[in-house]
Design brief:
It is built from 14 helices and 14 strands. It is α/β, with parallel strands linked by helices. The strands form 2 sheets. An 8-stranded mixed sheet has the order 3-4-2-1-5-6-7-8, with helices on both faces. The protein has a 6-stranded parallel sheet with strand order 11-10-9-12-13-14, with helices on both faces. Strand 3 (51-52) and strand 4 (55-60) form a beta hairpin.
């Protein structure tokens, strides 16, 4: 099976959850004997990398403008796909749905991973939110198969657009890292810090996490991993908060083995994301056996279940939860083991890849498009 994967920033993963998904899925499909090509944005690509973990890397440019970066790169990717030989396409992000007719015109069937409800992000203005609403509708109407990553998103598409979807979450079973270079670089001790990982966007609340931590007693560092190309005001706000609390460590974007080092050696993980479905960073923290504190909303509860500590920002909720944990961490130890067991049962990358393989093979075996 010749598979084109497009709509992400590409591989190696250097940005967010979609890119981690693309890398882990492509590697496993390639290992299963399929020919996989991952379309990658030039500014995000590793120089000189034409293949990675068994998958081909096809690098194309993109407009570096917030509203156009995704669509411009996917447009070029679709045009490139149309002149090559592929059996099936996996398209990521509902924002790319208007381009589905380009792929269908070549007789290709397309599975579309719609991601979360992007229109709910505050970075989008009125026009941007309207565009994403239209894209949801087009995704439901035009995709040959719709894939959702959480039950809450699956229910939304069924209710709002009367479209059935295949629910396939993300994996969280990462290999244990070697070495401790990331810890040494940041001056951290194993089990001696709390960790937050996310893009610095308003709905991910890095500033509110840092602000809440100011009232937590003790000297345990809070490490914030992440950054954002289009949220400069928020990044300035986080830097200001960090400058006022020496315990807050801004690590910047961290990937690969160093990311796993920080994850596996953290005392606990804080997940404060409001928008989306299954977030890979949350699942990965659970898979690493960390005690997880998660913002209390439906998607996060779906992932963590009873294997984490829910919190709200209202009335000092996060401050109180972290203060209690740091004062008596042994009371929370069972949660790390429970989180790891939940990932082993529900969120294994091998299972994720097998589910996608079934969807893609099903499209390949369907009647050709006219």
């Amino acid at each position: 099976m010749r598979v084109a994967l497009l709509g992400t920033r590409g591989i190696p993963a250097r940005y967010g959850g979609f890119e981690t998904f693309a890398e882990e899925l492509a590697a496993r499909l390639a290992a299963a004997g399929h020919e996989v090509t991952v379309y990658t944005r030039a500014h995000a690509a590793a120089p000189g990398v034409a293949a990675y973990r068994g998958a081909r890397v096809r690098t194309l440019p993109a407009l570096r403008v917030k509203a156009l970066e995704t669509l411009s790169h996917t447009l070029l990717s679709c045009l490139d796909v149309s002149r090559r030989r592929f059996d099936v396409v996996l398209l990521c992000n509902a924002a790319n749905a208007p381009l589905l007719p380009l792929l269908h015109a070549r007789g290709l069937r397309v599975a579309l991973n719609v991601d979360g409800l992007e229109r709910k992000r505050r970075k989008w203005g009125r026009l941007g939110r309207a565009y994403y609403r239209v894209c949801e509708r087009l995704s439901a109407r035009w995709a040959d198969a719709v894939v959702t990553d959480a039950a809450v998103i699956q229910r939304y598409y069924r209710r709002a657009w009367r479209r059935a979807s295949v629910m396939i979450p993300y994996g969280g079973d990462l290999p244990h890292p070697e070495g401790d270079s990331a810890l040494r670089r940041l001056g951290l001790a194993p089990e001696g810090y709390l960790l937050y990982v996310s893009r610095f966007e308003p709905e991910n609340n890095p500033d509110r996490v840092a602000a809440a931590y100011r009232a937590v007693p003790g000297d345990v560092p809070l490490v914030l991993v992440g950054g954002a190309p289009y949220a400069r005001a928020l990044v300035r706000r986080v830097r200001q908060l960090a400058s006022e609390d020496p315990r807050v460590v801004l690590a910047g974007p961290v990937y690969g083995d160093e990311y796993r080092q920080l994850l596996f050696h953290a005392r606990a993980y804080i997940h404060a994301t409001e928008v989306g479905g299954t977030h890979p960073a949350l699942v990965e923290a659970m898979g690493a056996g960390r005690v997880v504190f998660f913002l209390d909303n439906m998607p996060n509860r779906e992932v963590a279940g009873g294997a984490g500590v829910p919190f709200t920002f209202a009335d000092g909720g996060l401050t109180a939860a972290l203060s209690e944990f740091l004062a008596a961490p042994r009371r929370f130890e069972r949660l790390g083991a429970a989180a790891q067991a939940r990932v082993a049962e529900r969120y294994r990358w091998d299972d994720v890849a097998s589910a996608y393989e079934r969807v893609l093979e099903g499209l390949c075996s369907a009647s050709p498009r006219a």
